[in-house]
Design brief:
6-stranded mixed β-sheet; Metallo-beta-lactamase, Chain A; alpha/beta; about 15% helix; single chain; 12 strands; 4-stranded antiparallel β-sheet
Length: about 150
């Protein structure tokens, strides 16, 4: 597994079977190396989202549209993104697991909030915040805490 950090909570995970972005907050992220954008999105197959804040959803819609990557998040967040044009997606909720090709994703509890304010100033609840446990077919695992504290 190759893991690349792009600032804030944004990571790229590469395995033999998948190229995954987690919380791809690139635009507006002061720690994202803009000259790495092409490398960051190259060949992406999946985008995993921990919760509905803008600094985690980031560039998910644009990247999915550009690459065809499947966006995976909690039910409420994915429904909201679909209303904004997202087509390739899957969802789960806290305690649930899905099995995309090459890996599985389990949603675990995180202590945070999850929502987004639209251009009119209205707040939208976007489901429970989560950490994500990713198990790869080669036996490796990864835990992304999202925005939670260590208990």
């Amino acid at each position: 597994m190759k893991l690349t950090w792009y600032g804030h909570a944004a990571f790229r995970v590469e395995t033999d079977n998948a190229r995954i972005l987690i919380d791809p907050f690139f635009t507006g992220n002061p720690t994202f190396p803009e000259d790495k954008r092409a490398d960051a999105v190259d060949g992406v197959t999946h985008i995993l989202l921990t919760h509905g804040h803008g600094d985690h959803i980031g560039d998910s819609l644009a990247i999915s549209e550009q690459t065809g990557a499947q966006v995976i998040g909690n039910f409420d967040l994915i429904q909201w993104l679909q209303a904004k044009g997202l087509e390739n997606c899957d969802f789960g909720n806290t305690g649930g697991t899905i099995h995309p090709e090459g890996f599985s994703v389990t949603w675990v509890q995180a202590f945070h909030s999850s929502g987004n304010v639209d251009e009119t100033g209205n707040s939208h609840y976007l489901g429970m915040p989560n950490g994500l446990v990713v198990h790869f077919d080669n036996g490796e695992s990864l835990y992304h805490m999202g925005d939670t504290d260590i208990l």
